[in-house]
C-alpha cells in the first residue's frame, strides 16, 4: 500500500442470508454488496452514490466492520481490519468514525452534550472532569456550537444542530476516516449546505478522509475529490469528481446525472433526461450478464450474457460497460476484453447489434 493510501477495499462482499420455514433454513442470499473494490487516500473525499438499495450503506458499514463482510478484504492504514481481534478492532475503530443519516436516533436522549461528546474523550484520550469539558467545548466550537450548549439535551436542538453534535462526537477520538452515510438527507434543504460546508471545512482543517455516501450526485459532486457510482451491489464507475460529472462513462451514471437540474439551458439540453425503466432489480437475484442491462437504454444482446469488467478509460476513470462509448486506455475493442464472468454462450458467438437509438426517454 502506498504511503498516502488510507483504505484499500478489495473484492468486498456482504450477503445477507434469507431464512424461512420452521427450522429457519437459509433459502436465499441478499447480495447487498457483491464484489466491490476501491481505495481512499489520506485526506481525500470519496463520494459513493447510487439509488436506494444499491448497497452504499452496507459498504460503509462493512468497511468499518460494523457488520462482518462475507468475503474480500479491507485494509486500513496497511492493517487488514478483518483479521483484528475485538480489542485491536476497538482501538482501530477509534480512527474510523461514522456519521449516520438520522441525528435524532444517533444521540442518547438522556445524555447531555457534555456526556455524548465527552464519552469518546474519556474512553480514547482518558480525559475527565474539567479537562473533558474543555475539550468538548473546543469540539463544539469546531462544529459551530458554543460552550453554553454543554449541559443541554438533544431535544433542545434543531436537526442541523444535532448533526453538528454527532460530528463533534465523531471527531473526539481524532479519526483519520469519517464514513458519512447520507449525513444531510434527513435535514431541511436550507440546512443541508451548511452541514456539507462544515464537513468540508473539517476535512480540510484536520486532513480527515471522508467516505461520503449519498443518493444525490449533486450533493456528492460538491464535496468529493473522486466519485464512485454503485448499482446493485457493484461499483460501475469511479473517477475524479469533475470527470465523472462532466464526462460520465457508464450509462447508469449518465442517467443519474440527467436527473440533476442544471441552471444552464444549453447544458440541460445536452443532458436530456434519461428515465430508467422500472426499479432497481432485487439483490436476491441480480440479472445475469451486466446487472444494469434490464434498465439500460443502450442494452445489446451481449449485455445479457457478459458481466463486463472494469476498464481503465482514456482521459481518466474506470468504468464497467461493454459499449464503445469512450476510448479505452488499451485501445481494445469490446470483444477483446476478458469478461468478469460469462454465461453459457461464448462471447464471440454473440452478435452485437447497433446501439439502439431512441433509447433515451
Ligand atoms: N440486514 C439486512 N438483511 C437483509 N437485507 C439487507 C440488510 N441490510 C440491507 N439489506 C438489503 O441490501 C440491499 C442494499 O441495502 P443498503 O441499505 O446497503 O443500500 P443503500 O444503497 O444504502 O440504500 P438506502 O439509501 O435505501 O439505505 C437492499 O436491498 C437492502 O434491502
TrEMBL record:
Domain ABC transporter positions: 7-257
Keywords (alphabetical) are: ATP-binding, Nucleotide-binding, Transport
SMART domains linked to this entry:
AAA
> From what superkingdom does this record's organism come?
Bacteria
Any one Pfam family match given in the protein's UniProt record, by short name: ABC_tran
Which InterPro entries does the protein's record reference? AAA+_ATPase (IPR003593), ABC_transp_ATP-bind (IPR050319), ABC_transporter-like_ATP-bd (IPR003439), ABC_transporter-like_CS (IPR017871), Oligopep_ABC_C (IPR013563), P-loop_NTPase (IPR027417)
* Biological processes per GO annotation: peptide transport; transmembrane transport
Any one GO MF term held by the record is: ATP binding
Claim: Transport is one of the keywords in the record = yes
Q: Where is the signal peptide?
A: none
Q: Entry's SUPFAM superfamilies?
A: P-loop containing nucleoside triphosphate hydrolases
Sequence similarity = Belongs to the ABC transporter superfamily.
- Could you tell me what this protein is called? ABC transporter ATP-binding protein
- Organism equals Acrocarpospora pleiomorpha
